[in-house]
Amino acid sequence: MSLSKIRENIHLIKKQIQKSHKNSMFAKSPVPKLVAVSKKQEDYKVIEALEMGQKYFGENRVQEAQQRWVSKIKQYENIELRLIGPLQTNKIKQALNLFDIIETIDREKLAKEIAIKIKNDSKTKSFYIQINTGNETQKSGIEPLQADNFIEYCRQDLNLPIVGLMCIPPLEEEPSMHFALLKKIAERNSLQELSMGMSNDYNEAIKFGATSVRIGSLVFGSRE
Prior knowledge:
The protein is an alpha/beta fold. The protein has nine helices and eight strands.
C-alpha cells in the first residue's frame, strides 16, 4: 500500500468517527479515539501513521510489540500503546513496562499476577477487563453474568486501576446487542472507557458509546 494511502485512510476514518459520534446519543462526550492496530503490519506503514500524527496503537503480542516500539517510543512523543491481545502470565512484567493500557484482563489468575507485579513506576497505569459478551467457548473474557463480581474483585481486593471494558462480538451475530450489553455493564459499574468496534463495525460501536475503536485493515490495508 502506498504511503499517501495510509495518510488518506486515517483522515477518512477520523472523519467518519466524528460523523458517527456527532449523530450518536453520546455527542457531548469526547470523540472516540482511533486505535490503529499495528500487529503484524510492515514497519514502513506504522512509521507513516506515526509521521502523520497518529498517537494510539494496539498490539496483540508482547514480544512483537517490544521489537517494534521500544525505539519508536523514544523517537515519537505522546504515543499511547495498548495491549489488545491475550496476555500470558509469564509476559506480565514486560507488558507492564511497555504498554500504557492493557485491555485484556480476562481471568482471575492474570489479574492476581498483575496485582503482584505492578509497581509505582510501571508504565501501565490503566486496565480494561475483557468481557466475553457472546459466551463463546473459544474466546477469552469474563462471562457477562460474572462481570460485576469480577470488576469489584479487581478494584476492591486487588486494587487495580480498572477504567473500562473491551469486547469482541461473535462474527455471526449482530454486534449492536453486544455493544449495548457492554455499555450496560460499564454503566452499572461506573466505568468510563469502552473499547469496542473494529474495521467492520466501528460505526455501530460508536452509536453505543465506544470511547475507542480498534482498526487495523482499514488503516493499513491487508497484511502483506
